[in-house]
Structure formats: C-alpha cells, structure tokens
Amino acid sequence: MKTTIEDNLQKAILSHSTDEAWRAFKLLCNNSIFPGKHLTNSLISHLSSLKDTQNLKRAFSIVILLLEKDPQLISLDSIQILLEAIKLADLTAPCLALMKAMLRNKFYPPFDVWGPVSIELCCKNSSFPEFLKFFNEICSTVAMDESLNFMKPDLPTFNAALEACCRFGLVTEAENVFERISDMGLKPNSISFSIMARIYSKKGLKEKILELQKQMHQLNLEHDAKFYSGLIIGYISSGDLKSASLFVLQMLREGSERSSEQVSQLGVLDEGTYKAISEGFLGQGKIKELAKLIMDCLEIESKLAVTAKSFGSGVIDASIGLGFVDKAHSVLDEMNAQGASVGIEIYTLILKAYCKDHRTTEATQLVSEIGSLGLRLDAESYETLIDIAMTNQDFQSAFSLFRDMREARIPTLKMSYLTIMAGLTENHRPELMAAFLDEVVSDPRVEVGTHDWNSVIHSYCKLGRLEDARRTFRRMVFLHFEPNEQTFLSLAHGYCAAEKFFSVLLLWTEMRKRMMVNAGKENPSIKFNHNLVDAFLYGLIKGGFFDAAMQVVEKTQELKIFVDKWRYKQVFMETHKKLKLQRLRKKNYRKVEAILAFKNWVGLIT
C-alpha cells in the first residue's frame, strides 16, 4: 500500500498536481507512515515554490510535523527553500515558529540557513522581542556546546539586532545583545559602538556613554566618525541640540590634533548624519544656532591636516536634499551677517539647487552676490545656470549671467555662448541674437563666425522682417565677416516669399560681384550651388529680370550645375504669358534679347 501511495505522490509532484500530492501525503500520515526522505523533501520544495499562502502553510505543517516525529527526514536545503518562501511572503510568525521548533527538536541549522532570513524578517516589526528570545537561546546553545559553532551568528547580525533595539528603544535588550558579542568570541567593531552610542544618547544616558568610550579604549578602537555619528543622531533625536553640537566640535577638534593619516582614519560624517543635523536644527527653526555651529566648525577645520568635505557643505547639501533650500540660504545669510568667511562651495550648492528648481531669478541674484564678495564660480556652474535660464526663456538672466562669466575671466565661454544662441534661435528672437552678437563679437573667447550672423538673418527672414535682415547683413559685412552661400540663400528666400523681386536682383548683383572677386581662390567664401540657383532663378524670372536670370544660367553652365528647365518654364508661363514682345522691342531692345535667350534656353522657341 505504501509503495502505491508513494508512486502516486511522486507522479503528482512531477505533473504539478499539487492537491493530489497533498492528499497522497495525508493518506500516508493517517496510516502513521512518512514518504522516503527524497520524496518528502521534493514535496516540501514543490509546495514552497508555489508561493501561495495555502501551499506555504502545507509545506510549513509538513516540516513542523516531521521535526516532531522524524527530523532525519528533513534536509537543510528544504528548510532553506521554505524559509526563503516565508521571507518573500513576509510572514514573521511562521518564521519564528519554525526556528523555535528546530531548536526544540535539536535540529540545528547552520547560521547561513537561519540567520539572514530571520534578521531581515523579524527586525522590522513588533515581533522583534520574540526574535530576541530565540536569538539569545541560539547564543546560549552555542556557548554550551562548541561543536555547534556553525550556528553562531556573525558580527553584522549582532549589529542588525542592535540597530533594531535602537529603533524600538530597547536599552536593556541592546546591552544584552552587546554582551553576547563577546560571549560568542567576537569583537564589537566601530559600527557596534556607534549604535550603542546612539541608543544611550537618545535616552540621555551620559554615564553609559563614558563607559562605552572606556570599552573602546580597552579594545584599542579609536573614536571615529561612525561613533560620533551615533552620538550626534541620538542627541538630535532626543531634541538635545546643544549636546549634539558639542560632539560635532569634539570630533573636529580630535581631527585637528591628528596627523594626515589619522584624520583619514577618523573619516567624515555620513549623509544620514548630516540629514539628521539639518532636520534637527532647521525643523525647529534654529537657523542662528546652525549658522553658529557651522562657523565654529569652519574655524576648527582651517587647522585640519587634510582637507575633506567641510561640515558646512555637508549640512547645506543635506538641507537642500530635504527640500530646505530657502532655509539653507537663510543659514548662509546669517553666517555672512555674523562676519563668517564663507567659501564658494556652499554658495555653489545653493546655486545648483536654484538651477534644479528653475529659480533663475534667485540664482542670478546669488551670482551677483558671489561676485561682490570676490568669489569665483567655475565654468560648469555658469553653464548650468545659463542652460536653465534659456530653458525657462528667461533671456535677460542668461545675458546677465554671461556678462558675469566674462567679467570673472572664465577662459572658455563657447558652451554657454552656443546655449544662448541655440535658445534664441529656437524661440525666434533674432533681435536678441543681433544685440547679443554685437555685445560679444569683440571677445576672442567667443569665436563669433559667419554662421552666427546667418542664424540672425535667417530668423529675421522667416519672420518677414526683411529690413532687419538687410541691416544685419550690412552689420556683418562692416565687421569684416564674409557672407557665404547660406547668407544669400536666406535673404533670397525671404525676398521671394515677400515678392520683393527687385531686392532679389540687387542681391544677385552683390553676390555676383563677390563671386568674381573670389574667383580663383582655393576656398571661396561663396559656393554657388543648386539651392542658390533655384532661389535666384525663381525670383529673377518672377520679377522679369531675364538679363540677370541668364547670368545665373551662364554660371550654372560654367560650373556644370544641373537645372530643371521645366520648373522655370512653368514659372515663366504663369507670370509672363501675356507678354507682348513686339511692343517691348520698340521700348527696350536689350530686354527683348534677354527674354528670347531665356525662352530659347527653356525650350519655348523651336
């Protein structure tokens, strides 16, 4: 009978017939029989892998039953798979019950099996006191039997338990866990002492902190940044800002008395500590007190053997990260009011925060303040500010920043210059582009080129502001910038769109002269191309300037540029189909000759 049911159980597992497998197992149990070890663990693993509550309960009940009746049938792998499934389901009670059952039935799992899962599950909720009882029982069991050292918790696990004690405010329990570290033959590290320091300072237990410092001395452990972080965070949590400030200063004084190597070993406060300080002071509106603390720290830091991240920078950075940008600026103002010498680093942090929040007005004002104090921003900060200003279409702020950048003698202006020009082009503001070019054209760091003037001309033409485009053209020529094919193309398209065909003729005359002057040069400024041919032929034919049109044709033949004659034949027929050559011949023989030459070229004369 057993063999038949076991066969059915195995088939059910292989075919994923879970309910059938469960019924087969129960049938065996009802007859006080258990499947073989391999089959039993296959069933446990299968049920655990399904990750639903019902089958997890089934796997759990099998393991609990076998721990009581026949523990040898259970493999450690199955226990680990079940515990991982329990962790994923976030089920603390079954986790604790399973581990207690293992201890009760002397089924001793290695630390790797029970430790990580239980710590992660049980240290974050109200079941932690129950976990501590189990944890102490494990430690006691190991202490009494050295052969069970494989169950011993490691130091990170002790520290995680201490962290949970701190979170739940369990002082006595934390002290017991701390003592257990030595019982297990381990040595508490700086993290262990830091957590204990936090626990004691939160409760205002100053005598306990002194004892803790003595223990550190006995273990030859230095007071490092981790230890001080614990004290500072604890005092701030209890609202004792005065004691927190004293320990900040004590830490820095210790650093000022050490060598470069010792200062590096002392370390710096971490981001979490800076955040706690910011929340503690600014949350209570203690702006003057925080400014005073930063100033005291600046004085001590000036004597440090090595330069690390300053306390003031850390606090301001954390304040900004918490959304206290305006309060951080208020701290800076208070420091200035008290006559502190504030470095550029703190200004830069606030400045970048304003940029990130698109507060360009405040950022520009701060830049002016920085300049008035004789401080100097780096190129990256200016570039970021200008980029934000242009994104917000705050063009005047961008111009102001660029002027400050020039006055600060920043060696490279190219990126910011390009950002402004691109933004103005995208927003169709050629008048601002022209004014900006006039302002910077003489600065060798900017490297203004013909293409920049072309951008202005093109924008004006697109907007139909042809007089402004022509004025810009004259300005660029006056400043000795050589117009190129793009310059003339933009103007030609603008004139054609506005049906100012006489202006097209004048433009062609000017371009033709320039091409004649440049003839024979290796790199002529104007490269006659198909686009220019099309623009000028269209405008000259529409305007009836056939002599000039044939000059364009001659140029295309000279340079072997292909021309679609059909297009210009159509333009002629649409515009001049009623033209009477006989009447025109009496008035302007030369024009008639040009018309005939054109008609012959496009194939209107056979």
TrEMBL record:
Q: Which Pfam families match?
A: PPR, PPR_2, PPR_3, TPR_At1g68980
Q: Which domain of life is it from?
A: Eukaryota
Alphabetically sorted, this entry's keywords are: Repeat
Q: Can you say where the PPR repeats lie in this chain? A: 154-188, 343-377, 449-483
InterPro entries per record: At1g68980-like_TPR, PPR_rpt, TPR-like_helical_dom_sf
Identify the residues that the record assigns to the At1g68980-like TPR repeats domain, covering every copy.
2-152
Family per record: Belongs to the PPR family. P subfamily.
Show the NCBIfam families listed in the entry. Answer: PPR
- Under what name is this protein listed? At1g68980-like TPR repeats domain-containing protein
| Native organism | Amborella trichopoda
